[in-house]
Backbone:
């Protein structure tokens, strides 16, 4: 099974990173719909797409408008958007306001109400997280593999956060800031390097891939000191746009 990183940045796109969007093409599963979602059309392997939205901040939802050509032409026959009810309501009211994007796309807006069965015999569970306005972390367990997607929250080492991702084969976690910017992480509801690596270590995950970096970092190709993370959890990688990962 392959995971494609269509966008790995946070807040706004840069010359090297679009905002968050991850895709499992063979299952038609997409996590978030940032500006990287314009690349979905290049990886379509199913007629049905299922989005799982972490929250409704603009850098995570704007790409929901980008599927209009594919849905109009029938390349995508159906698309479902899962998320918290309040967030789905906000997207429909504001993103699809006639003054903002005057085309009502035929999404099935489906609020989260317990675990979700996903293609391939998988089971998706989720966790409410601390972030301005709140966010959702996701985990999918298949019979032979597992993945967790955790973004837009402050890693704090709580027992709940550790248990949620415990033992996953692949943890994709935001790491917006380096440790020197810890105060900004807490102020904005994001994470910095050391607590994220400690989470991966304490939860005994198989692999950690970092996403959602500060677009104002001096070097957006190397936005954090990766060696700090690797000294705590050696199997840590900085994800880049268009990376393809077998898991």
Residues:
């Amino acid at each position: 099974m392959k995971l494609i990183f269509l966008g790995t940045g946070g807040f706004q796109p840069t010359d090297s990173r679009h905002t968050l969007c991850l895709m499992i093409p063979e299952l038609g599963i997409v996590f978030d719909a940032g500006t990287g979602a314009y690349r979905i059309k290049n990886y379509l392997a199913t007629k049905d797409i299922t989005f799982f939205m972490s929250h409704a901040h603009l850098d995570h939802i704007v790409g929901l408008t980008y599927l209009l050509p594919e849905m109009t032409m029938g390349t995508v026959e159906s698309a479902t958007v899962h998320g918290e009810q309040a967030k789905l309501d906000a997207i429909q009211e504001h993103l699809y306001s006639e003054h903002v994007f005057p085309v009502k796309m035929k999404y099935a807006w489906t609020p989260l109400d317990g675990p979700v069965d996903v293609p391939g015999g998988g089971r998706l569970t989720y966790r409410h997280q601390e972030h301005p306005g709140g966010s959702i972390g996701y985990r999918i367990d298949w019979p032979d593999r597992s993945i967790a997607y955790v973004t837009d929250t402050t890693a704090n080492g709580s027992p709940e956060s550790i248990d949620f991702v415990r033992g996953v084969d692949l943890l994709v976690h935001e790491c917006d800031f380096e440790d020197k910017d810890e105060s900004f992480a807490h102020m904005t509801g994001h994470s910095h390097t050391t607590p994220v690596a400690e989470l991966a270590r304490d939860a005994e995950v198989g692999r950690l891939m970092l996403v959602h970096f500060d677009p104002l970092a001096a070097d957006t190709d190397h936005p954090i000191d990766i060696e700090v993370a690797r000294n705590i959890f050696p199997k840590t990688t900085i994800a880049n746009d268009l990376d393809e990962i077998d898991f």
Notes: The chain has a mean pLDDT of 97. Residues 85-95 form the longest helix (11 residues). DSSP finds seven helices and 14 strands in the chain.
